[in-house]
Write a structure and sequence with these properties.
By secondary structure, this protein is an alpha/beta fold. The strands form three sheets. It has a seven-stranded parallel β-sheet. Strands 9-11-12 form a three-stranded mixed β-sheet.
């Protein structure tokens, strides 16, 4: 798995940001998360070895997981990133965004109906953001679309937004004070995906997890493992 973080730092912009792993990690390291700065890895996709080949080999690159690729403070850097993304057409760049409403301000001039090697994942956590963000997302010219409902904070209905979606990922919040994830909400989204023939993945449980009306307190290290054990992923 290749990771490319051209900048770091972020700002909370929705209900799902309350226990954001970026902010928590920076707090432990005494880093000011509100400062959005370029990293030493800015040119990572086009760095080459002595023999002239790229350091990053073909495959998926997870982009901007220490920030948001559409964050306002990075507007003056993004065009250069798009040029690198276009140059590395052999790589598939995947990023999550809570700022899908900034899409038209953030794409390159030659975007047209989308870059084939870019996967954009719109994140939502409650019905309010489902109806606001996914109503925008569904009409955008993007070749590969995914939805991430993580942390999922309530039961949501996304079925009318599933056209052209390749994958829906669901997960809970990882913090000892995190908000509850009810397993029934997860199963409900899974059913919506099955009805629409869209791939579904249960990525992680929540620290505070309800199943069969019983509250479980889980350790962060076990959240992904427990979700995998549920064995409810669906491939259309």
């Amino acid at each position: 798995m290749a990771m490319w973080n051209p900048w770091r730092g972020c700002k909370r912009c929705s209900e799902g940001c309350k226990y954001c792993y970026i902010h928590k990690g920076d707090y432990k390291r005494h880093i000011d998360t509100s400062k959005i700065v370029k990293t030493k890895d800015f040119y990572k996709p086009i760095e080459k070895l002595k023999d002239g080949t790229y350091k990053i080999k073909s495959g998926v690159v997870y982009l901007c997981f220490s920030s948001d690729f559409f964050i306002e403070e990075a507007d003056h850097w993004r065009d250069e990133c798009w040029k690198m993304i276009k140059e590395r057409s052999d790589l598939d760049f995947l990023f999550l965004t809570k700022r899908i409403d900034r899409f038209n301000k953030c794409i390159p001039k030659d975007w047209n109906d989308g870059y084939e090697n870019v996967i954009i994942c719109c994140t939502v956590e409650n019905q309010k953001n489902v109806d606001y963000k996914l109503s925008i997302f569904k009409d955008l010219p993007i070749k590969h679309k995914c939805i991430t409902a993580q942390p999922l904070l309530e039961q949501i209905n996304i079925e009318k937004y599933l056209d052209d979606i390749e994958l829906v990922v669901v997960g809970g919040e990882s913090d000892k004070n995190g908000r509850v994830l009810n397993y029934n909400w997860v199963l409900d989204i899974r059913n919506q995906c099955i009805n629409a023939k869209v791939n579904f993945e249960f990525r992680q449980c929540a620290t505070n997890f309800i199943k069969d009306n019983k509250l479980y307190k889980l350790q962060t290290k076990d959240l992904c493992k427990q979700a995998k054990l549920a064995n409810i992923n669906y491939k259309s």
